[in-house]
Design a protein that fits this description.
By secondary structure, the chain is α+β, with helices and mostly antiparallel strands. It is built from ten helices and 16 strands. The two termini are 18 Å apart.
């Protein structure tokens, strides 16, 4: 499944596409399950929390968002809500469902903890991989917002950085419906220099509970090696689209710069994504995503 060639590409470019990671049958079963989750959404029992695709600390800092690490929570497209009412049918309003699908949902728990994922983590050298921030992202037709350029380790920080994203296409992801765009090799030249952190009255007496971004001393992950990083710093870097078929896995290094444009088409762009970090590295209380006191980060 995950060959030496895949590993070499991941090391060189900071991402790699693994085609046919899921069979057509698996994709269809998962899509049917997601449709049921969408149909189960009841806006009457929901705070209509949107998920801003541009930085908005106030919205990201809502308690509904902060409490989502171990839950199945629904976040709405900003353009689907106006004056505290939905402007589209409920199932079409969902931006994403997360962030505890790998914990609470048997379908996604089985997928996340499957042997192919274990194999990839082992071949990448993870000693104690932990799973966090699992989500279905719908990228709804016409209203699916852009996701700005970012690095996953900004949001899921360990010291040293170790985040790795598993991004699984559940339908064909093309330029026309807002596919992933990456900056190849940027993991070699762009260290993590900022973090999204959880604010608290304890740390900031004048602040409300929420999130903020802070600057940190730039830090690289332990992989790739120092010499490999220096080799790439002089190169011009531009983003390129990563078009993939349904069932493909895109593996993303936590320092890789990536984004996606808005979906202006009439076709959705469903994906399932989750992240792993090295459990032997420190994941501190500044991180926005915090598990309940009696609930450790999930072992892969």
């Amino acid at each position: 499944m995950f060959s030496d060639t895949h590993k070499e590409s991941f090391s060189r470019d900071g991402f790699v596409v693994v085609e046919e990671f899921l069979t057509n049958g698996q994709v269809q079963e998962i899509r049917q399950h997601i449709q049921q989750l969408l149909d189960d959404f009841d806006p009457q029992k929901h705070p209509l929390t949107t998920f801003p695709t541009t930085t908005d600390n106030k919205l990201l800092g809502s308690q509904y968002f902060l409490d989502s690490a171990t839950r199945i929570s629904y976040f709405l497209e900003p353009d689907s809500v106006s004056q505290a009412k939905l402007t589209v049918e409920p199932a079409r309003a969902i931006n994403k469902i997360g962030h505890g699908l790998h914990i609470q949902d048997p379908v996604f728990k089985q997928l996340t903890h499957g042997p192919d994922v274990q194999e990839i983590a082992d071949k990448l050298g993870f000693k104690d991989p932990r799973v966090l921030q699992s989500m279905v992202i719908c990228k709804q037709p016409r209203i699916g917002g852009p996701v700005p350029m970012h690095q996953d380790s900004t949001f899921l920080f360990t010291n040293p950085p170790s985040a790795c994203g598993f991004w699984i296409a559940l339908e064909d992801c093309l330029v026309t419906n807002g596919c992933l765009h990456v900056v190849p090799k940027s993991h070699r030249s762009h260290p993590i220099s900022r973090r999204m952190v959880r604010c608290s009255a304890e740390r900031q007496p004048a602040a409300e509970e929420g999130v903020d971004f802070i600057d940190i001393e730039p830090v690289f992950s332990l992989y790739p090696l120092q010499g490999e990083k220096e080799e790439q710093q002089q190169q011009q870097q531009e983003s390129c689209p990563v078009e993939v078929k349904a069932g493909s896995l895109v593996l993303l290094h936590g320092q890789l710069l990536h984004m996606s444009p808005p979906n202006l088409s009439d076709k959705s762009r469903w994906i399932y994504t989750f992240h792993i970090i090295e459990g032997m590295h420190t994941y501190d209380s500044l991180n926005w995503l915090q598990m309940p006191a009696d609930f450790p980060l999930t072992k892969l």
